[in-house]
């Protein structure tokens, strides 16, 4: 069989999607791994089409005859051929670009399509040669490029003249020793350094790994979370599978152009430390390593219950590596985190070894499944000292003494050099863990994390400068959004204008929103973009402003009935009585008392100025066009927002720890600093009945209620599902059931936690 060599064209540097990590230097000995070249799961049919659309490639619209003469989309031809020959479709896309610039070329010339992958055209051959005409045409070229790669792997051991791994060759006066068969194949296909360096550059720009191993990612508008590992993305099949390994580690939302870089690896289906049986052997899943038990008796002796055993097939676990056996002598199978009784020293015990934990914040990151046990010092006597505990891959961290931020990968800290890189990668300040200096320094220094901006250079093409357009001013809004409010009547959205997204759900609620607070994914919504009266939900926005202006919670306020008495006054307080700010905070957030809110506001600024400052902060961003506040308590029906915008405002408020703590209280007690009516003691329970209710399948972590005739019953809740600790943000507005305001929100919440 002839081994045809492709046409080598001029080098073309393609634009890379942003962000892109700076690539390592080109190594002619290792261009591609065999696992990358032969991974048929590299891209699905839809992925290929979406990639072409994202690149604005005319191939996205191309329909051309396939090898059977049927008119077919270019992306379908690529997908079918990759599957036929068991290769990665990414290889075909990069080859199309390397050979004929067909992915980024703005117009498709027939001569380029005819010899799309350069298959069967050698350096000195004429494309008019009668012997190669049968390989002409887009589909034939794709088939040839894919087929020759499969032929290479099938004949590598029997055909002596083809290049193979670990053999040394001289190519373009350069000594090359391919370290993989995939690299050797590329030199068979293109026997030049420059052509293969070009292939490597394009692959790195399109499909090279951006995020360090251990990073949790998800696509925009998609709830599935993946972990990046060895250049592949592995989906968590359940929230339990993720939480058991990574706790509440942040998930980065990435654009499609970044998501598609990673080949899809096997799904992570079972929670960490699952006990499984494949029909022959019992295993413990220990950080994605299979640890076999020395028989069922070991399981019984270690205290496992038979009901914990999950039956699996060998195929389901074939991708997992085998680990250390578990015997009756194995100590601390799942590990223990301990604190010595008389010293504030922490250790991780596992497999007979003790590993010092140099900062307690490491415990929550590395061992979300373990509680801290207080033990005597002599527990360490029967252990072998090991190296200190290093942070998990993907952890953002900085020192208490220095603002530099790093990300951990394989025990090394990789510096993120500036805020632009930090922001471009989708990281947030609240994701960064602050460690003591010693705990950070035990991590060796790795390569810095660098982002390269989009390249606009193309070989031989002069680039014209585009004039900078005049920036458009930010959208300003100084008045309330147009909402028709009828005094004494609940605002509702007409059926003709009702808008729902997500599963159909029968409810009397006029508006609702169910969202993942960590990723921002909206699971369900109804009229969530329509502005409507907030009622007492406004108080959270007002108090957030007080925290933004550095309220002193140790301060206090003297009650003045002319300044502080609200329209709806239910606060038991007499003129001249004095209450601490931290107690007024609870009265405002837990009891939703308007007068207490007004008192708290005046401890920082005048009510008028606070409202003005809130409006200014809203105007300074375009994120809240449907939000307007004209009272600090929400007693005015013209304090309005949409559920979608309020969700962001509420989550922003929760970033203030004391405010979040107050919103999460079920009950509070306090005593007035100055008492005038001989009744100094106050106590109350949360206005949200669900926050106090027992035996629910979820826990309310923070919530706020609100009610006006014009708003109906409103409720915002951050809740945690009991089964796996997954959190949801639930917002219900326009609830007409005044007598039973929590039935509908509870029903919605139960539905959400059972479906997402």
Keywords:
single chain, 756 residues, alpha+beta, 6 domains, 5-stranded mixed β-sheet, 24 helices, 21% strand, globular, disordered N terminus
In a few lines, what is going on in this structure?
The chain is α+β, with helices and mostly antiparallel strands. The chain folds into 6 domains: 20-207, no CATH class; 216-264, no CATH class; 275-322, no CATH class; 336-385, no CATH class; 396-452; 495-755, 3-Layer(aba) Sandwich (Beta-lactamase). Helices cover 27% and strands 21% of the residues.
Spatial arrangement of strands, main beta sheet:
27-29-28-38-37-36
Shape: globular
**At CATH's second level, what is the architecture of the largest domain?**
3-Layer(aba) Sandwich
Strands, count: 38
Low-confidence parts: 1-22, 452-478
Query: Mean of residue pLDDT?
Result: 86
Q: What is the C-level CATH assignment of the largest domain?
A: Alpha Beta
Q: Profile the largest sheet.
A: 6 strands, antiparallel
Supply the helix-strand structural class: alpha+beta
């Amino acid at each position: 069989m002839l081994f045809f060599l492709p046409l080598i064209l001029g080098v073309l540097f393609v634009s890379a999607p942003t962000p892109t990590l700076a690539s390592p230097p080109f190594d002619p000995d290792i261009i591609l791994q065999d696992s990358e070249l032969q991974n048929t799961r590299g891209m699905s049919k839809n992925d290929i089409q979406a990639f072409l659309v994202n690149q604005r490639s005319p191939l996205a619209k191309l329909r051309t005859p396939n090898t059977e003469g049927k008119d077919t989309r270019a992306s379908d031809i690529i997908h079918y051929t990759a599957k036929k020959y068991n290769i990665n479709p990414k290889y075909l896309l990069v080859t199309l670009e390397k050979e004929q610039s067909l992915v980024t070329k703005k117009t498709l010339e027939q001569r380029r399509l005819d010899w799309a992958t350069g298959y069967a055209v050698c350096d000195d051959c004429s494309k008019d040669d009668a012997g190669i005409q049968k390989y002409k045409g887009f589909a034939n070229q794709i088939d040839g490029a894919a087929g020759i790669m499969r032929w290479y792997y099938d004949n590598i051991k029997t055909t002596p003249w083809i290049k193979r791994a670990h053999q040394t060759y001289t190519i373009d006066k350069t000594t090359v020793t391919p370290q993989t068969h995939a690299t050797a194949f590329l030199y068979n296909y293109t026997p030049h350094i420059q052509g293969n360096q070009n292939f490597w550059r394009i692959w790195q720009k399109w499909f090279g790994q951006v995020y360090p191993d251990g990073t949790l990612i998800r696509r925009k508008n998609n709830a599935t979370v993946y972990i990046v590992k060895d250049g592949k993305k592995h989906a968590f099949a359940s929230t339990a599978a993720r939480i058991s390994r990574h706790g509440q580690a942040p998930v980065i939302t990435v654009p499609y152009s970044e998501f598609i870089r990673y080949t899809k690896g096997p799904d992570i289906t079972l929670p960490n430390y699952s006990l499984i049986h494949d029909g022959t052997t019992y295993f413990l899943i220990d950080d994605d390593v299979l640890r076999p038990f020395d028989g069922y008796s070991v399981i019984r002796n270690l205290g496992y219950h038979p009901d914990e055993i999950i039956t699996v097939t060998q195929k389901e676990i074939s991708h997992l590596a085998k680990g250390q056996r578990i015997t009756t002598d194995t100590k601390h199978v799942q590990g223990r985190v301990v604190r010595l009784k008389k010293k504030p020293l922490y250790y991780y015990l596992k497999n007979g070894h003790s590993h010092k934990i140099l900062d307690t914040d490491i415990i929550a990151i590395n061992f979300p499944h373990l509680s801290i046990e207080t033990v005597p010092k002599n527990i360490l006597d029967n252990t072998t000292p090991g190296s200190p505990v290093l942070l998990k891959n993907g952890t953002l961290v900085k020192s208490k003494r220095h603002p530099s931020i790093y990300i951990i990968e394989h025990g090394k800290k990789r510096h993120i050099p500036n805020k632009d890189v930090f922001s471009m990668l989708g990281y947030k300040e609240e994701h960064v863990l602050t460690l003591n200096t010693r705990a950070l320094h035990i991590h060796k220094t790795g390569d810095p994390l660098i982002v390269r901006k989009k390249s606009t250079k193309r070989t031989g093409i002069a680039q014209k400068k585009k004039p900078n357009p005049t920036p458009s001013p930010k959208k300003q809004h100084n008045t309330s959004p147009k909402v028709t409010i009828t005094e004494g009547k609940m605002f509702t959205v007409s059926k003709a204008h009702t808008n729902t997204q997500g599963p159909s759900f029968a409810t009397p609620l006029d508006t609702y929103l169910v969202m993942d607070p960590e990723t921002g994914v909206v699971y369900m919504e109804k009229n969530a973009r329509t502005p409507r009266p907030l009622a007492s939900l406004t108080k959270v926005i007002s108090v957030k402003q007080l925290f933004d202006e550095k309220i002193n919670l140790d301060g206090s306020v003297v009650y003045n009935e002319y300044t502080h008495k609200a329209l709806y006054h239910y606060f038991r307080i007499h003129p001249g009585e004095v209450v601490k700010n931290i107690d007024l905070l609870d009265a405002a957030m837990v009891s939703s008392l308007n007068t207490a809110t007004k008192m708290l506001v005046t401890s920082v600024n005048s009510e008028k100025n606070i409202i003005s400052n809130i409006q200014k902060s809203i105007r300074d961003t375009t994120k809240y066009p449907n939000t307007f506040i004209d009272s600090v308590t929400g007693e005015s029906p013209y304090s309005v927002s949409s559920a979608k915008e309020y969700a962001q405002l509420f989550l922003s408020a929760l970033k203030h720890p004391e405010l979040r703590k107050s919103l999460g209280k079920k009950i509070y007690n306090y005593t007035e600093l100055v008492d005038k009516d001989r009744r100094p003691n106050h106590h109350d329970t949360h206005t949200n009945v669900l926050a106090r209710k027992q035996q629910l399948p979820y826990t309310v972590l923070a919530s706020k209620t609100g009610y006006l005739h014009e708003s109906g019953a409103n409720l915002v809740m951050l809740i945690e599902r009991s089964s796996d600790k997954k959190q949801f943000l639930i917002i219900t507005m326009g609830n007409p059931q005044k007598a039973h305001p929590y039935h509908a929100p509870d029903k919605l919440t139960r539905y959400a936690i059972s479906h997402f």
